[in-house]
Amino acid sequence: MKRLFAFGAFMLLFVGFHTPLAAGFSGYGCGTMCLASMNSFCPSCGPMTGGYFNTYTPWAPRPPMWWQTGPMMYSNFYSPGPWSYGPTYPGLMPSYFPGVTHVGAGKPNLYLQGKPGTAVSVKMSFEEGGNWLASVPSHGKQGWKGVLAEKNRIQTDQGTYSFLFSDYRVNGLSFQEQKGFCSPREGVVGKMAMTLHKAGFTAREIADFVEYWSVKLPPSKSFCVYPQDERQLNSVAPLEITPKPVAVRRVLFVVQVEEGLNASGARFSQAPKQSWSPQPLRMPASDSEGLVAREWGVAFMFAPAKSN
Questions:
Q1: Which pLDDT tens digit goes with each residue over 31-80?
Q2: Residues 251 and 297 in one domain
C-alpha cells in the first residue's frame, strides 16, 4: 500500500510538472513542440496558453521559445501591429516599438513616376524626435538610390520595387486634427481611397492601398480619420529627392478608433468638425515632364499626446 501511495505521489508530481509544459503554461522545455511546424499553430486554441500547435499527441504541446516575438503573441494579420485593447486608451502598444513619440506611421508607400532610366535618390529624415521602425529596401545613412525602370518600378542594388516602403514614429504635434471624417468600419477604407483619388494618386497606387488596409485596420466598429498632407509631413519627415520632382504629393491618414474618442486632453480624441481637401497640385500628364513623387500611409496613436 505504501509503495502504491508513493508511486501515486510520484506520478502526481511528474504530471503536475510536465502537463504545464505540454499545455503551454510555461516558457521552458521542449517536448513534442520541437516537432511542430508554424503552419499548424492555432492562435485561438487554448486561451490560457497563448495558442498551441497541432501535433500527433493527445495533449497540447507548449509553444516554442520564439512564440512571444511574433504572431504567436498577437494576430498581426488582421491588425496593423501589436494592439492594446485596454479601456483607458486603445492603440499601438509602445513597448513593441523603439522610440517615445506618439504617432506611428504604418506602411507609407512612396511611388516615383518618371522617365525610364532616370537615376533617383531619396532621403528621409525626422524632426521632433522621430525615428525609423522599418524600411524596404534598406534606407541606411545614404538614403534610397536607384534607377527608374518600365512601369515606374525602382531598380536598386537590393532588388526591384514598385514603391519605397517605410514605418516610422513621429510626434505629430504639428498635425491637424480639426478636418477629416468619421465612418463605420465597412466604409472607411473606401472613403480614404476616394480621398487619394481626389489627391491625384493613380489607380494602381489606390488599389495597393485598398488591398492592404482593407484587412489591416485595428478592431473597432468605426473610425475617425484625420488626413495630413505635405503641409504637415514635410515638417516632421522631410524628403530630399534628386532630381527635384516637379510635384510631390504626400497623404498620411491618422486613424483613431471610436474607443479612443473623448479622452480628456488627448490629441485626435474629438471627431473632426470640418471636411478635408488636399491642397491644389498639378500632376504632369506624362513621364517626360519630370519626376513625380506620391506617398500614402496610415498612422495610429501609441498614447495620448497632450494638446498645446
A1: 333 333 444 445 445 444 444 444 444 444 455 544 444 444 444 566 78
A2: yes
33 and 172 fall within a common domain? no
For the chain, where are the E strands, in sequence order? 41-42, 52-53, 83-84, 91-92, 103-113, 119-124, 131-136, 144-148, 154-156, 159-161, 164-170, 181-184, 222-229, 239-242, 247-257, 292-301
**Residue 85 counted as domain residue:** no
Write out the three cell numbers for 164. 519605397
Q: What is the pTM of this model?
A: 0.75
Amino acid at 34: C
Rounded-to-integer distance, Cα 252 and Cα 180, Å = 12
Q: CA 6 to CA 192: how far, in whole Å? A: 69
- Burial of 37 (C-beta count, 10 Å sphere; 0-12/13-18/19+): exposed
One-character DSSP codes across 228-254: EEHHHHHHHS-EEEESPPSEEEEEEEE
Gyration radius of the chain over CA positions: 24
- Cis-peptide into 238, omega within 30 deg: no
Is 110 in the same domain as 60? no
β-strand partners of 264 = none
- For residue 174, what are the domain limits? 101-301
Cβ atoms of residues 241 and 102 within 8 Å? no
| Residue 265 CB partners (closer than 8 Å, separation 6+) | 304, 306, 307
